Amino acid sequence: MTDWRSRIEAVVDRDLPDVATLSRPGQVGDARIDGGVPTKEEWAVVDELRLAAVMVPVVQYASGPAILLTRRADHLDKHSGQVAFPGGKVEEHDASPVATALREAEEEIGLKTNFVEVAGFLDTYQTGTGFLILPVVSFVQPGFHLIPDENEVADIFEVPLDQALNAENYERHQVMWKGKQRTYYSMQYEGYNIWGATAGVLVHMSRRVTL
Description:
With 211 residues, this protein is α+β, with helices and mostly antiparallel strands. It has helices spanning 4-11, 19-22, 40-46, 97-109, 161-164, 196-210; strands spanning 50-59, 66-72, 83-84, 87-89, 116-121, 125-126, 131-140, 153-160, 171-177, 180-189, 192-195. The chain has one domain (4-161): Nucleoside Triphosphate Pyrophosphohydrolase (Alpha-Beta Complex). 24% of the residues lie in helices and 33% in strands. The strands form 2 sheets. Strands 1, 2, 3, 4, 5, 6, 7 and 8 form an 8-stranded mixed beta sheet that branches. Strands 9-10-11 form a 3-stranded antiparallel beta sheet. Strand 1 (50-59) and strand 2 (66-72) form a beta hairpin.
């Protein structure tokens, strides 16, 4: 059986990125899946982005780990019905992006912090809606009791880690959006459409873990 925990611990960034690193366009993902040198326009856009943090929860079941995901409520103004990690905008009262991810996970799905062990960080990910997301990879011990906030979350579900990190499960798409060609990934799992930033973060994580 694959020792996923050791593999993840070996590839995540242990130190919280500093402000300069968080502001480096070369790390961001949504418009930069194809790589390349950041343009002057992208440098300028970074200054306008809002920092957010999401938890990438890896539940450590004896039968095999799984990624915990949510489907956002259908009535929300933004990203309604989309699959997402627990997380949100970094608020002024948050001590760090880690505190944001922990707070949001407890508020959105009732995941208590005593079940969570932060492992490290992945590259930041820029969305087309103006957020710079820092993924906080965390190990979650079983035994938790989740209570979704119905104002924000419609469903909570899990994807086996070996499926979530299998790059062959993802399709690559290109669309024109706001005058720019954007590339994104999607994955279908038991009726859920995992796409956009969520799929992008998982693909980036897959590249690290499987190298």
